[in-house]
Amino acid sequence: MAASQQMLEFVTMSWHWILLSVIVLTVLVIALLAKPVRVGIRATAFILDLGVSYKWNAKAIPKSILISEVTYRCGDRDIIANLYRPNDQRQHSGLILAHGAVEGGKDDPALRLAGGSLAHAGYVALVPQLDKLRNFRLHQDDIDVLVASFRYLARQEFSNGKIGILGICLSAPLALLAAIEPSINQDVAVISSWGGFYNINDWLQAVISERYIDEGTAKPWRPRTVLIEETPKWLLELLPDPSDRVCIEEILRGNSTDSAKSNLSTSGRAMYELFTDRDPERVVDLWTRLDPEVQQTLNNLSPHLKTAQLKTKIAIIHTFTDDVIPWVESCKLADAIKDENKIYFRVFRQFYHVSIEDLLKARISNLHNVISEAVQFYLYMYSILYQL
Hints:
Number of helices: 14
CATH class of the largest domain: Alpha Beta
Number of domains: 2
CATH superfamily of the largest domain: Alpha/Beta hydrolase fold, catalytic domain
Structural class: alpha/beta
Shape: elongated
Distance between the termini: 63 Å
Largest sheet: 8 strands, mixed
CATH architecture of the largest domain: 3-Layer(aba) Sandwich
Low-confidence stretches: none
């Protein structure tokens, strides 16, 4: 009897443990299937893989991916792009990465690392070549390329239709404007502005005067050298009168006397004074004197006139040390976005411009701040990936 009783107790206890194990496993499976957990794991995988790639030129995630160069149409021209995706037969969410004004364009080393890490984390990444921006020119053509890139990715069999656009630096406003285009604005899952401008006139004023306006006060700012050199060239190209362009170029080179200014049109003189006047308060008046065609071209490239049309979620980040676009531009963008559409906003201090590899250079003296910002960068990526 005693032996039978012990056997019964053992069987009963075993069933209790089996039942408890089943419950625990069920809870774990449900937790892993929950979207916040799945996205958290993928965001962690992306950050780890990207960090290892930057630090040791290796991969943290042993997952096979496919990398290829693809071609598709945009109007009457062919667009080339780098495509990164998991090497499987499943459908995946995607992210279009828009490069900044960098010579490498779609082949910029940082974007190649980011595209590979996104694919290792289970996402599709498409990096189109923005020819105008690659040559330091802002143009509607590149907005059209981003729209065409969205359409291309949406119709691929490996896409599940959930696609976002991430714009970096000078491509950030172009990404915003692409997401507002009526043909895709209902379908864009998420948009991110990383170090972009909100008002093109305010940004140009900051570049030309080397001062930005913060809460009504002009503060000194040193733009990147290439920005100081290329911005006037681009603005001159916008002038409709060729004689104005030639005359201003000669004056700026010192090959013409001040009397040549009398040959400039009203718009040409306003453009010349924009280049030479360092008073931010005069800039507003000078903009109004530019040729209406130039003003319209600039307005078409500025998100500040169209943010009300944005229908998707948006994540916004910037850095205080940015020497291409002052950080206050992202603050203005964040203020203009409806709260229900704004999923993340932060201005970082521990890395320069878009160089997140600076977070890997932690020292004891700034370890706390670096860890804090690394966590915030993770949350930024999580907020984007959660929408996909």
